[in-house]
Amino acid sequence: MKLWQKESTSTSAQIEQFTVGRDREFDLLLAPYDVQGSLAHVAMLERVGLLPADEYRLIRQELENILLEIQAGHFSLRDDVEDIHSQIEQMLTERLGDAGKKIHSGRSRNDQVAVDIKLFLRAELLDIKKRVLDLFDLLCHKGEEHKDKLMPGYTHLQLAMPSSFGLWFTAYAESLTDDMSLLMTAWHMTDKNPLGSGAGYGSSFPLDRLYTTELLGFGSPHYNSIYAQMSRGKTERFVGVALASVAASLSRLSMDACLYMNQNFGFISFPDWLTTGSSIMPHKKNPDVFELIRGKCNRIQSVPNELALLIGNLPSGYHRDMQLTKEILFPAIEDLKACLEMAVLMLQHIIVKDHILDEERYKYLFTVERVNDLVNEGVPFRDAYRQVAAEVESGTFSYAGTIMHTHAGSIGNLCISEIRQLMERAASMR
Predict the structure, then answer these.
(1) Which terminus of the chain has fewer CB atoms gathered within 10 Å of its CB, N or C?
(2) Of the listed 10, 76, 220, 278, which one is catalytic?
(3) 269 part of the active site
């Protein structure tokens, strides 16, 4: 059954297959939200006098029964229905007769799927937020735990200056604070109700859109009915930007982990059960998890561009192109959640090497420390720089001093509490 089907016309199976595409696959994800939207809609219809109270009670009860079926995993899309919207209405009609046919009054599939997607994305963003906070807390904990363990810092992939595992872990913790700001911006964009905008031009029915907004827990409605439809694609793109930002942090962290596991670095390692081996090289312990996180997250970073290209030249109003946003964005959400989960698992079991900088090959990391010591003794900086450079060139450089970095954000002052405050502000729902 199709909600738009007429008695005298039919569409070829080939056209149907092409236009439906992968919608049925993703509609199962939207099923609980479609029922929630319908519950709010019929409550509003009863409130404004478009649905008798007795029929409303019957419809509400059956919708709640369907929601329980979905939540229990006893729900699937039938082969003869086009989408989740069609199936819900068909199930109500089968169970209630003519009363079930009344739930579509005052709405279109356009605003129906728009509200489903808003509800879905709002919930998924909160799930991702929790997973980001879990990773953030772990990074802060690891930073505190390993704050005194020094490691090389690099610029241009060349030895630069002393760093520490505390500084490394908390660098990614602070990176997540900016990612969280984008996640919450995207959440606020999803927190607007398009229900009641119809096909984009409202309705002659006296719909109470503020009431459905309240029932669905949205912060506000999309006031303009045209823009409610124009927000399709735009909302998804901003969610994609937020996902891509988190993915960029994860990808870079994963690249570091792959590099630092390499035997020529040897800064970190993991238990055997978190690594994979080679079919012909018995010694191998491969960082497959981090490589796949890196690869998946690099793909996720393409999502905003895909969505921008999809919607970039569309005029106002609804267009079937919008259907394709689901197959771009929904898999990316699942991939990012999996990557966050695996990153937490790996970092919970990371093994950090100590006394790395005791090795002779890292002695030139301390040239800046030596220059600064000379400056503290009264030598002009440029003269101190040249003196140490001459010692390096002649092979006579050595350094036996201590590392004394005390300014905010340095080895000796990680500012973890301040970074936590940044995250608290970024994660705020206000």
Answers:
(1) C
(2) 278
(3) no
CA dihedral 198, 332, 189, 226 (to 10 degrees): -30
Q: Is the pTM of this model over 0.85?
A: yes
List the one residue out of 236, 156, 135, 255 whose CA is nearest residue 190: 236
Q: What is the 3-state secondary structure (H, E, C) of 301-344?
A: CCHHHHHHHHHCCCCCCCCHHHHHHHHHHHHHHHHHHHHHHHHH
Q: What tokens appear for 423 in the block?
A: 């995250």
Q: If you ran DSSP here, which 8-state letter would residue 410 be given?
A: B
Q: What is the C-alpha to C-alpha distance for residues 387 and 325, in angstroms, rounded to an integer?
A: 61
The pLDDT tens digits of the residues spanning 239-293 come to 999 999 999 999 999 999 999 999 999 999 999 999 888 778 888 888 999 999 9
Q: Taking residues 358-372, report their average pLDDT.
A: 96
What tokens does 150 get?
Answer: 């020094």
> Side-chain half-sphere of 208: how many Cα atoms within 13 Å?
16
How many Å apart are CA 284 and CA 262, to the nearest integer? 11
Cβ(340)–Cβ(128) under 8 Å?
yes
Strand 150-155 relative to strand 158-164: parallel, antiparallel, unpaired? Answer: antiparallel
Beta-bridge mates of residue 24: none
* CATH superfamily name and code, 13-102: Fumarase/aspartase (N-terminal domain) (1.10.275.10)
Angle CA 137–423–288, to nearest 5: 45
What are the tokens at 354?
């100590």
Please tell me which residue in 156, 283, 355, 407 is annotated as part of the active site: 156
What distances in angstroms separate CA 307 from CA 27, 57, 314, 329, one per listed residue?
19, 41, 12, 8
Q: Domain limits of the chain?
A: 13-102, 109-352, 360-422
Check if CATH label 1.20.200.10 holds for domain 109-352.
yes
